Amino acid sequence: MRVNAVAYQWGWEFDYPGTPIRIVGETGHVPTLVLPAGRIVQVSLSTRDVIHSFWVPALRYKRDAIPKVLGRFDIVVPPGEHPGGCALFCGLHHAEMRFEVRGVGAAAWAAFLERGGPQ
Asked: Which of these, 78, 79, 61, lies nearest to 5 by C-alpha position?
């Protein structure tokens, strides 16, 4: 399982390679990265502009996104909802760079893929 996470001032985009699923955060909309709970997921992390940080405090997980550098990491997410955000001050609207990671069971994961994303 792979996911691309792209940071930008001031939001996040999550793409699921091999599927049409693309989740984009916008002002007033916190994007949710849905992942299969308990499975290893490889995340490719990049940024379109300045240094950002993919930070999920409840998971004790933080990785920096550095311009012109493609970062990769593996993550295993437990079931449930885990708020996240950018942990590096990246500009005026830094506080709006929030996202959520949601770990779901096998049936919910299959349904997410079948319907082509969140609904």
From this structure: 61
pTM: 0.90
Q: Which residue has the tokens 């969140």?
A: 118
What's the first-to-final CA gap in the chain, in angstroms? 21
DSSP annotation of 96: G
Q: How far apart are CA 118 and CA 72, in angstroms?
A: 24
The H-or-E segment that residue 111 falls in is helix 106-115
With H, G, I as helix, E, B as strand and everything else as coil, classify residue 112.
helix
* Nearest to 112, CA basis, from 3, 25, 11, 30: 3
Contacts of 65 (CB under 8 A, 6+ apart): 5, 7, 45, 46, 47, 51, 52, 53, 54, 71
Q: Which residues of the chain have pLDDT under 50?
A: none
CA distance 36 to 76: 8
Q: Given this model, what pLDDT does residue 78 score?
A: 97
Rounded Cα–Cα distance for residues 75 and 57 (Å): 13
